[in-house]
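User: I'm putting together a small comparison set for a docking exercise, and I want a reference complex before I start. The sequence is below, and the ligand is uracil. Could you produce the 3D structure with the ligand included, as structure tokens?
Assistant: Of course. I'll restate your input first, then give the structure tokens for the complex.
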Amino acid sequence: WPGASEWVPRGRSVAALADAAQRCRGCDLFRDTTQAVMGSGPADAELVLVGEQPGDREDVEGEPFVGPAGRLLDAALTEAGLDPSAVYRTNVVKHFRHTDRGGKRIHKSPARWQVAKCEPWLLAELDRVRPRGAVLLGATAGQEAFGATFRVGESRGRWLPWPQAWPAHRGEFTLATPHPASVLRSRRRDEDLAALVADLRVAAELLT
Ligand code: URA
Ligand code: SF4
């Protein structure tokens, strides 16, 4: 598989990316999906949120974070003093990786090689939106940015440098926090939600 580069259009428009990604054959993940899901939000957002990949709902609707994890994320953003409509949301991988079990599509995390093949789309988004900061939601996003040894638990909730892996545009900070889907699955949901909100508050402060 050739990676996404040859499908990424030139130019500065972030809106043009979603259409172009529908043609991408950079890896095998376009198969068995409804569509590619590019990021969404203001093209001049100060903050970008980076998730893993679209889920079942996102694959159907063509928008990131419209399912259960997205609803929890919006609530957490609001509680942290961030306006959900002012942030740009995206994922490191643009197609939904899943396995089929009993007629249901079960989420399966993208492999490291698929994340690498898809990276040109994320870099194009960052280069066009040019945010001041990026929040890395979960291990897939954290490791995309900082490499396979990155652990969210050890680095969450504080200023992190702009990743070397993202050279096109250089923002002021990144901040890592667990993925909202992991909060949904947690047995200590209230505590974990409070901790997610606390991390997002740090991101809000870094923007002031
Ligand atoms: N989880 C993600 O990482 N991204 C989405 O868009 C939805 C769920
Ligand atoms: Fe292209 Fe990314 Fe989809 Fe793979 S997952 S086909 S690289 S858009």
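The longest strand covers residues 47-51. The CA atoms of residues 98 and 107 lie 4 Å apart.
User: Thanks, that's exactly what I needed.
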